[in-house]
Fold this sequence. Notes:
By secondary structure, this protein is mostly helical. The chain is built from 4 helices and no strands.
Amino acid sequence: MRTIHFNVPDDLDLKDFDVTMIVATKLYEDGKLSSGQAAEMVGLSKRAFIEWLGRYGVSVLSQSISDLHSDIANA
């Protein structure tokens, strides 16, 4: 896994975990990462990552029926 460094304004008041979760949840939501990959990125178990998704406004359910069938097949 590659590491990327970037600057976050101090007044934003976000912890490193929050920034990583925001990036991971967006990549998961956009279908760029699986839940397992996103969980690994954040340093959580897959189950814990899925539990955290709701706190960041991301649904664990697929947006399309074909995505849902694919998720079920790959479970």
